[in-house]
Structures are given as structure tokens and as C-alpha cells.
Amino acid sequence: MGRITFPAKIEIDIEPTDKVERIKERVEEKEGIPPPQQRLIFSGKQMNDEKTAADYKVQGGSVLHLVLALRGGLSS
Length: 76
Known about the structure:
InterPro entries: Nedd8-like, Ubiquitin-like_dom, Ubiquitin-like_domsf, Ubiquitin_CS, Ubiquitin_dom, Ubiquitin_ubiquitin-like
Oligomer: single chain
Keywords: Ubl conjugation pathway
Organism: Portunus trituberculatus (Swimming crab)
Protein name: Ubiquitin-like protein NEDD8
Domain Ubiquitin-like: 10-73
């Protein structure tokens, strides 16, 4: 059996006017994950890069889920 590691919580400061693409850039600054590989989920919905935090009603203390979109398919 292998070991599964889950990433630690990432805390970033954002403004209500920040677009999702800017939030992804801040995640890259902290964690080194390029924005094209990031999928941000809030309230069960994938966030669109062109919308703002305010569009999704993201507030201080809100939790966004980061899913990595890795290239390639399953190998058999």
C-alpha cells in the first residue's frame, strides 16, 4: 500500500474585485503550481477565470478547493 499526501492549507489575501485568474496567480506565487493546472472550486462549482471573487460571494474565511488538472491520460 502506498502513502497518500494531502497538501496543507494555503492562505492568501484577496480583494473582492480580484478575478479568479489573479487568485490562481497568487496560488502559483506560494505553491509553484501554474494557473493552467489549477481548478478552483467554491460551493461545489468550478470558478471561471474571468469572474471575480465577489461574483462568487467569496468572503474572508471562505474555503476554496484546489484541484490539479494534470496533463495526460491513464496508463494501463
